[in-house]
Amino acid sequence: MRAYIAVASVWALLAAGSLAAADRTQDEAAIRKVVEQVNTIHNRHEVEPLVALFDETVENWTGTTRGRAAYEEAIAGLFEREGNRLQKEVEEVGIVFVTDDVAIYKSRRQVTGEVDSAGKEMPPQTANLARIFVKREGRWFLSAWFAMPVD
Predict the structure, then answer these.
(1) How is domain 29-149 classified at the CATH fold level?
(2) Per-residue pLDDT averaged across 24-30, rounded?
(3) N or C: fewer beta carbons within 10 Å in the chain?
């Protein structure tokens, strides 16, 4: 009887682990889809659909821009200043789950078409990027991000 309970317990733990892995696969696919949407919409310079992919609590790394409305204004200004030249490409490095509802999407990003304060086009900028995603009511939203320039 003890052997049966032990086998049943191990089976239950393995089954639970497999279900969790399946859920992570779906979550990873959903996060990748949001990343793809963010990049595509960003490269088309569409402010409202881009900001709709952000969490209500979205905040920049320094805390000076908080919430969707603030980001809508900031991104509109960025697109107006940079014009249609601004483009970005992202290469995934990995996804790390902090909890079931919080994940970090790690990538390398290259931005082209950026201009300096004098309006002169800058060389392509490459950075390691960490995007924090939160899951709300079954959907993943971009909540924050941090970019570290690569020399």
Answers:
(1) Nuclear Transport Factor 2; Chain: A, (3.10.450)
(2) 96
(3) C
